[in-house]
Amino acid sequence: MPSFEQMQRKYTNSGTIGQQLKIMADEVTQETMDNDPQTKQAYLYDYYHDDQAELEYGYNPTLSETKIPIKVKFIVKSYKTFAKDDVDYHIMFEPDAWNSMNFKPNWFETNYQQLGIHFPVGLYLDLPDDRGVYHKWLVVYEEPANQFPKFGILRCNHRFMWIEKDGTKKVKHKVWGINATQNSYTSGVWRDYRIQSYDDQGKFFLPWNPISSTLRHDTRIIISMLQKNPWAYIITKVNDTATKGMIEVTVKQDKFEPEHDYVQLDPSAPDYGDMYADLLDDTVTATEKDEVKGVNLHGYQLSIQAKNNLVKLNSVKILEAHITDGSNKDITSKCNDMECKWEIKLDNDETGILSTPLLSFDTDYMTKNKFKCKFKFLGDEKYLSQNLTVKCTVGKLESNIILDITAL
């Protein structure tokens, strides 16, 4: 333990006595951070750096190379009861990291800070519960303080899906957010002697980004559990200035319209769970918003599938590439604008990738079916004792399969 004289020398040039005490408190908090049961290993990121976007909880953020690891204290500010509105929780960053801001990414300054958003409001936070299961949270506001500034967080509980109409195009969007619960004791229906309409209102919160900012008044959106006839709503109010970095959306209940709205109930479908209002209202084809474009795909897996591991002389062979997320859900259809590259090499061939005359690719078929490879091996019987190694590359993902050359 340092002597009184040593402490005097250490803090003499640290300003007032109050400032000196603040430094001491930070040092004590930093040294005891790991021993505090409230301390948790968390991961910070925005919408564009979420490479595990398909899941709300139960994933492993340590597999991500785009999320920022940071220790935080998880502080319970108040408790929720069933008949009460949602309560928020607090986090506090470790003093060394917060004072130096050495975990603040460059992309935040470029994309958010110049708009007046205070770090880290509007960012997602992966936070483990007492069993070690990670959940997706959202930093919703800052609470300034002279000592130990804190931030309010809420747990994400719904993935909001809507259609952006841009001229003749329609684009699907999905963003994790918070469907707020609030006390409402109205009948939910308004009527007079002529008309009747739904009067149930709700509110939800999203992080501000160029995707969520496409929400507009009168946009219809489905907010419901997955079911045949879910609950539809229409946006009546959008506020993106009350808390910079967040978007507060007010909605009024609307009728679900099966002829216009889309719900995918088939568990075997690649878009299982999707619910979009006004997807079927015209002949314009909606394009899927690429959830993984520009994001490192670490944590996802690429595999090559085939009926068997044989390739016959002068016979057609078809291979399929599939991308799955951390929950083993196929997300291949969401990677359509990523390049899919196929390479085929013969064993003991130092010249590299095979081409004509030994291989004949069906380029028209492969153009129409981006993640499939269709070819013929045109070699003769002298190649029967060798193998073909097929390599597929999608983004930074790679997969290989070895095919035995056979005559039968």
Written description of the protein model:
The chain is mainly beta. Helices cover 10% and strands 38% of the residues. It has five helices and 25 strands. The strands form six sheets. Strands 7, 8, 11, 12, 13, 14 and 17 form a seven-stranded mixed β-sheet that branches. A six-stranded antiparallel beta barrel has the order 1-2-3-6-5-4. The chain is globular. The termini are far apart. About 2% of the residues have low confidence.
Attribute tags:
5 helices, mainly beta, 7-stranded mixed sheet, single chain, globular, 38% strand
Describe the SSE topology.
Blueprint: H1 4-11, H2 17-31, E1 39-45, E2 68-75, E3 89-93, H3 95-100, H4 106-111, E4 124-128, E5 134-143, E6 150-155, E7 158-166, E8 169-180, E9 189-191, E10 196-198, E11 201-207, E12 220-222, E13 232-239, E14 246-254, E15 262-263, E16 275-276, E17 286-288, E18 301-305, E19 310-312, E20 316-324, E21 340-346, E22 359-361, H5 363-368, E23 372-377, E24 387-394, E25 397-406
Q: Which percent bin holds the helix content?
A: 10-25%
Largest sheet: 7 strands, mixed
Written as H for each helix and E for each strand, in order along the chain, the element string is HHEEEHHEEEEEEEEEEEEEEEEEEEHEEE
Rg of Cα set: 27 Å
* E-strand count: 25
Low-confidence spans: 290-298
Tally the helices. Answer: 5
Mean of all residue-level pLDDT scores: 81
Task: Specify the overall morphology.
Answer: globular
